[in-house]
Amino acid sequence: METPLQTLTDVMDPARAQAMQAALGRADAIGDGSPLPPFYHQLYFWDPQPPDALGRDGHPRVGGVIPDMGLPRRMWAGGRLAFDAPLAAGRVAERRTFLESSVRKQGRSGALGFVTLRHEIRQAGRLCVTDWQDLVYRAEPAPGTAPPAPPVAPDDEAGSDTLAFDTTLLFRYSALTFNGHRIHYDMDYATGVEGYRGLVVHGPLLAQILMLRARETAGSLRRFRFRATAPLLQGETATFCWRGGRFWVRGPDGRQCMIAHANS
Predict the structure, then answer these.
(1) What does the pLDDT look like over 79-121, one tens digit per residue?
(2) How far apart are CA 242 and CA 261, in angstroms?
(3) 203-218 and 167-177 helices cross at what angle (nearest 10)?
(4) DSSP run (H or E) holding 205
(5) What is the pTM of this model?
(6) Pick from 199, 225, 221: which is nearest to 212 by CA?
(7) By three-state DSSP, how is residue 27 classified?
């Protein structure tokens, strides 16, 4: 039997889910026993660590659940999810985390590390959600290195809406998910150390909004996969687009920030 790297339990507090609803400007009430919207499990299973157990980026230092690949820069590159049963607010749930794969490669921009974690989330002994999380680790950028050109987003959407990302939304999402990564709130770190042009909008936040759109357009959501392709920055307005089972995020200059596919 496969041994998990980590097992955490949590009560899916309705108040936390309701706070997420408020942060996203959603009106539906979530109370005790309500089914949680897809991907809201990201609000739970916190694993707080003391300051001396954190890396320079504010995340827990690698070498525990995540292997140390000797690469300092990390990002959530994408993932895929299977929703087999809704999680109920106000009930105890268990999350088991497994290391699916870990490999180091040489890319055009230098050394890269690819890690995939698999999270299995159960309530009352039933597997409700399986969440594969793809992480990428990178070396420090060479001085003067220009970032790669982002892909151009499609413009054939059947429907779309827009959302502006200010510092308040980034702060609230970081707080609700207990995400301490400094690229989302520390401008000096984001620009001076990581080399971004500003604060970075959380990739999982973009994926969260796409998942909610996918459920609303199809009426249900069984499978979802997504991949981040370019950063979206605080202060920018993003266009969330869909056509059939395809979903994507377009930045204000037409760049593709995320691409996703959904099955109902």
Answers:
(1) 999 999 999 999 999 999 999 998 888 776 678 889 999 999 9
(2) 9
(3) 90
(4) helix 203-218
(5) 0.94
(6) 221
(7) coil
